[in-house]
Amino acid sequence: MSANIAPADGSLEGVLVASSAIATVDGRAGIALVRGYLLPELAEHCTYEAVAHLVLRGELTRVGDPVRTFADQVREGSVLSPTERATARALAHGNTEADALAAAMILTDDLTARSEPDESLRTARVLGRVASVCAAVAGFDAPDPAWSYARRAAAALGAKRVDPAALRALEVLLCLEAEHGLSASTFACRVAASSGANAGPSLAAAVATLSGERHGGATAQARAMLEAARDSGDPQGFVRQKCEARERLPGFGHRVYKVADPRVVPLRAAMRAMGDAPLLDVVELVAQAAEPLLAPKGIYPNIDLYGAALLTTLDVDPSRYVAAFTLGIACGWLAHWSEVRASGRLVRPDSVYTGPAQRSVV
Ligand SMILES: CC(C)(COP(=O)(O)OP(=O)(O)OC[C@H]1O[C@@H](n2cnc3c(N)ncnc32)[C@H](O)[C@@H]1OP(=O)(O)O)[C@@H](O)C(=O)NCCC(=O)NCCS
User: Fold this and answer.
1) Residue with the nearest Cα to atom 29 of ligand 1?
2) pLDDT digits (tens, 9 = 90+) for 37-84
3) Model pTM?
4) Which residue among 51, 198, 291, 344 has its CA within the 20 to 30 Å range from the CA of 260?
């Protein structure tokens, strides 16, 4: 049974659990590669559709080639029926939007999608329905299928700013979140997929990992901290005090990165291009103050700190931050879902038993 397995803390840190051709993250060098491309470079230069095509189908599209077809495939069938919209909305009654979204994700993979024999068409279709499901859970109008993915995502999040610079900044955030190796949510998706589960329930398993503060929930907490730092009138003093009290700062640290998070660079640039991003100045002050205290431990501002400032600027309610992350990472989850289905083996690790020795009922 477990006799030859080293005791583990359950985090699987450093444990190789799969082979994957989708992405790799070198946390000591600060490098994230998606299908061989640097993730920050992809976010800087590509649309979300192009990145999703790369993540799902392995190649980056160039101007004039199939990205148009792929974007069309993502749009096709993205409209939910009135019953599906009502079902998604009903789940939000008495539940947080994040929890409702987890349950509603099964609606991304409807019977039409499931009957599609071409799996790459199926994943494109499921991806297109993610914004529709997010909008339905939040009670917003269905996003127009003719819009770009980023524009549909903005509508699904209820973003109040949809000018070109704001949409581009949101698109950069979505691209940066599109794929990042075996995060907890991606791993959850892979575990579900390994049982042969359909795409919708596998995405539901992934979203279920996002509500806690250590993963997707960090963005809402980061916003609360940034607002408190701003309202204190002395953001730097505020943060120094928290560090001295050994409190964990939301939006700082990463299980893999022990150097600066490379995803911050293009996001910061896209936010600067928006002209006014009020919390961005607070982010910079907070980051500067924390640096001498946390950098020696390998703790740096992560993408969630900047994402929180961006979503605040777009006036997206924190109850929708899990939806924002979902809209970005959905193509990555789907790529992992396909990859695991192709391998065909059920995930079944072992644990070190710490309970009582065998005993008798009688
Ligand atoms: C992401 C996270 C869970 C990774 O943590 P981890 O790899 O398990 O790190 P550890 O718990 O081993 O912490 C290592 C040290 O760094 C400190 N640390 C980790 N994250 C910290 C943070 N956000 N703020 C302040 N100190 C932090 C720990 O207190 C610990 O210090 P110590 O050695 O003096 O006790 C953690 O950094 C965190 O909780 N961050 C805040 C939430 C967040 O932003 N999540 C989104 C990640 S993209």
Assistant:
1) 248
2) 999 999 999 999 999 999 999 998 766 666 668 899 999 889 999 999
3) 0.94
4) 51
Instruction: Please answer whether residues 274 and 280 qualify as being in contact, where contact means their C-beta atoms are separated by less than 8 angstroms.
Output: no
Beta strand pairing call for 23-26 and 31-34:
antiparallel
Query: 307 CB less than 6 Å from ligand 1?
Result: no
Report which ligand 1 atom has the smallest distance to the Cα of 261. Answer: 48
Q: What is the distance in A from the centroid of ligand 1 to the CA of 255?
A: 7
184 ligand 1 Cβ < 6 A: no
DSSP class of 109: S
For the record, the structure tokens of 119 come out as 């799996």
Please state, in angstroms and rounded to a whole number, the distance separating the CA atoms of residues 268 and 303: 9
Q: Give the three-class secondary structure for 26.
A: strand
Residue 239 structure tokens:
């943060």
Spatial separation of the C-alpha atoms in residues 285 and 278, rounded to whole Å? 12
Distance CA 46, CA 220 (A): 27
